Input
Amino acid sequence: MAATQSCDSFTSIQTPSSLPTMSKVSVPLEVLEEIFLNLPPQQVVLICRLVCRQWKAIADSQFLWRDRCRREGHHLLNASRVPQDWRSFYFLCKKKRNLLKNPWGEDEMRGWQILENNGDRWKVENVFVAHPREGIKSNFVTSYGMCSKSQLIELESEGYNASFMDHIQPDIKISDWYAPRWDCGCQYKIHVELLNQKKKPIQIFSPEEIYFEQWNDGKWKQITHVFHNYGPGVRYIRFVHGGKDTQFWAGWYGIRLTDSCVEICPAMET
Output
């Protein structure tokens, strides 16, 4: 006969009736919590918390997920902004990812809104110079007229609700890789906005445009920026970049762009 578990307490395990000399084995609460801390988090949520009310209470406890964050190095950016729900905070830390779609042009222009498409228009091509990140084999390239494109990120649809954004105010990190052609001068620009519900700017990152002379090194460069302490109300992020060649050569001799990234960073990683 198989052993059965009793949920009369957090920790009781009923042994088989065929072994009368063994009665209930009491497992201390802290031992059960330690077991949960060492299980895959999805298993704790999808399996353990469904066993009984007591297991659910442990799986839902703030202490369990706060301790899991501590053990895995997800430390608060600001000690005064304590999560209202440590479990949600933990999973948002784990799901940190690039919110921009199609950042390398592997799917042509899909996911991007074309704002300017002058000269011979935007194009996707194989990288002209090897990218520092192995595996990136394609990039967008501009022409002799100004080319720009954008994406609008709706944070709630990506899992970052209003309460979380306003209370935690996680860092928002943006980055972009750009490279000139070595034999042609070109121009690069980037403009990123944090927007409220009405899509009005709360904070803006808009550095001066970058120009390259002809006969440059042709190497990839990265620009990064972190928005922090931006206050409540952020609901969207608008990412815009582009450029052109400055010698008006027919074809695609303008700035090259790839591996653009927007990340929500709820915690300070160690």
In short: The chain has six helices and 16 strands. Residues 103 and 259 are 5 Å apart (CA to CA).
